[in-house]
């Protein structure tokens, strides 16, 4: 279906985009790749009065190595990351995750910032970026603030952004050579949004043990310190994995259907096993 | 209308488009290139896939205005493309064509596989083709055809198009554009339309298919809470976004419920009737609503029962609801439940305020971390 009518502006700068977002007389919304908003517009689920296209704003296309990691602008696409066109500080994790999102035709337009801001609980970046310790640069055209990626997603589809604020980009810290990574998602068909997903980052040297559970129907559950899930004794991380603790966590998140519980538990165990492999 | 120009199949193509014009619509209706097909129109089926700046993109969820200055190639533009010629021959040999509806998108994707992934094996080809659905389910022939071309070409350097970062098709903005003037289609304007009369009982709405039960603890004596529940108009204000007037002569409440969920905004014109059993401190609200913007209809039966719990009150709420129309497509079951949880949490918060003599607060729980806390508390008291 054709979307309901809207006005369209291609913003030239962050200031201009933020100012348009703050306008009270029009229900304005940003559009980046349109790969999540487009389907909602076509279904007429979303009917904004004004779309502000931010893909022409130069700052949002930045990608550079920094002293302690990389900086990626919000409009970098999944395919840009998949192809290694941007610097990497994660030993290839970002490219592997990017390549598993949707289909190539979607990845060629879908952006990191759009994926985070859309806040689909089953999205890949909302699960992966908090686990990697990404810190977002949030801009309102006048000032910039930093926000850990995990704090952006307080509820499904509702990012913690004030009116007029947008995601300008993100800083990703360099992982130490000893860091172990595990990621697993369960989809009924490749490219479909996941039914369960989990990411594990274990860096014993830097004392990091982070776990994020995605596709929970709620915002992803990002544990900065996941040691409570690994309470059993054993030398390998996978031996220490305590599925009772995982069950308790899932229950506290309102996942009480036994099949859903099993799915999330298995997906997390596989992510942990991959981190140990 | 916006004037745009694209490089279409090697020729400059100019058009005046409205911003909502999909790239596919521009190609089919204005450029009369009907090889690009539209199936699902939300990015799933792949029938509309075209090359934008040399890379495959969905023409259904890419808007023409966003492609001003871009390079677009449709299946018609591949006539003289050597790679496409090899693929066409292989498609013929391997019987990869049935009705042909999916074929233009399949060819564009196949060309991308051959160009970008030299040496791809059948599994990889299968994976890459997952975004192109064939109604005739003739996948095997397509996979074999792509494999044949990949094998025949051997190890060649991959061909990666578009060096610039960002969505394909997008161009840096040259100069600032004049801000637009509002048009008459904002939700506010629509919401001002006189409410449509809706029947008082949900006889013609969607049948309730979903049920959920919640308990909330209210720190007030049961009699006080019951008295408050009798004032259904005041009660309705505890639900953020609800605006109900006094009941009409038939005892039916009319009003509106504004709902915001991510990019979705809906305003349900709603009517409801309340029945009570004071001796049992039980009641029931039966109602229905319709959102004109999204064409969504909802019917709901809300049964509530109040129980004394020491000096306080436990309110048991059972909701049965049915949803039809566009919002129902979006509302994956559990998402709707989470949303209901949030509404219940907001409702409980405001109910407590109301009983304490404070006005309902439309924003507070959602605006800070409070609603997360409330949600936790709600689940703890969930019996
Ligand atoms: C068929 C299909 C399958 C998919 N499968 C997957 C999948 O498996 N995994 C996955 O993770 N995703 C999947 N997606 C979603 C896809 O990855 C999108 O690219 C992505 O989620 C949104 O990015 P976008 O740039 O297209 O955002 P848009 O659609 O342009 O915008 C999305 C939302 O974010 C807002 N927004 C955009 N940019 C910013 C910004 N910088 N700051 C603040 N707000 C902003 C917009 O206002 C809008 O509300 C799929 C999509 C499709 C069509
Ligand atoms: S019509 Fe575009 S993907 Fe289905
Ligand atoms: S050949 Fe008929 S849809 Fe694929």
From TrEMBL, chain A:
Residues 1-177 form the FAD-binding PCMH-type domain. It comes from the Bacteria. SUPFAM superfamilies: FAD-binding/transporter-associated domain-like. One of its GO terms (molecular function) is FAD binding. It holds the Pfam family FAD_binding_5. Keywords: FAD, Flavoprotein, Oxidoreductase. This is Carbon monoxide dehydrogenase medium chain. It comes from Acidihalobacter prosperus.
UniProtKB/TrEMBL annotation, chain B:
Keywords: 2Fe-2S, Iron, Iron-sulfur, Metal-binding, Oxidoreductase. The lineage of its organism: Bacteria, Pseudomonadati, Pseudomonadota, Gammaproteobacteria, Chromatiales. InterPro entries: 2Fe-2S-bd, 2Fe-2S-bd_dom_sf, 2Fe-2S_ferredoxin-like_sf, 2Fe-2S_ferredoxin-type, 2Fe2S_fd_BS, Beta-grasp_dom_sf, CO_DH_gsu, Diverse_Oxidoreductases. Residues 2-78 form the 2Fe-2S ferredoxin-type domain. Coiled coil: none annotated. This is Carbon monoxide dehydrogenase small chain. Pfam families: COXG, Fer2, Fer2_2. One of its GO terms (molecular function) is metal ion binding. It comes from Acidihalobacter prosperus.
